Amino acid sequence: MSTSPEIVADAAMAAAEPCFVAPELIDASGGAPRLVAGKCKACGALSFPRAPVCAACLAQEIGVAHLASEGVLYSFATVHQAPRNWIVPYHLGYVDLTDGIRVLAHIDGEPKINGRVRLGVGRVGTSAEGTPLMSYVFTPVSGASA
Ligand SMILES: [Zn+2]
User: What digits encode the pLDDT tens for the residues 60-73?
Assistant: First the structure.
């Protein structure tokens, strides 16, 4: 099997571009990133990641919704063991968003329980080919607490 020079060039360019881990969880297409969640069409309950069945009412019609971009850090731990190519150590925490849902996320900077955090995008690893691996991360809002 041979590979044309054009395909090799495309592969090299693609390797230099950052790649989102689980890209279906974040919409970073226009301006500020937003988390993409499920919203039950029967009762309005939110799920993140988007669940196929509503945990509140068991309905199976789940729409798509963008979540709030700010919240309060409920708790966190510092992780030292991770999949290969993941940057360690890192902080993993639960964030209570202002729209009432708790999400699990990377926490950048110096996390403080009950401190306000804001959604962004950050590098969480590097692929075996050298591609930066990106994901949603929450960063403490300096000087603010809930
Ligand atoms: Zn429901």
Answer: 999 999 999 999 99
Place of tokens 């988390």: 35
The burial of 138, by beta-carbon neighbours within 10 Å (0-12 exposed, 13-18 middle, 19 or more buried), is given as: buried
Tokens of 138: 């929450």
Distance (Å) from CA 66 to ligand 1 centroid: 17
Same structural domain for residues 73 and 135? yes
Question: Using 50, 70 and 90 to split pLDDT, how confident is the model at 13?
Answer: very low
In the reported structure, the alpha carbon of residue 46 is separated from the centroid of ligand 1 by a whole-number distance in angstroms of 8
Task: Tell me, in angstroms, the distance from the centre of ligand 1 to residue 5's CA.
Answer: 52
Pairing of strands 26-27, 115-126: unpaired
Q: Give the distance (Å) from ligand 1 centre to CA of residue 65.
A: 14
Domain that holds residue 52: 38-67
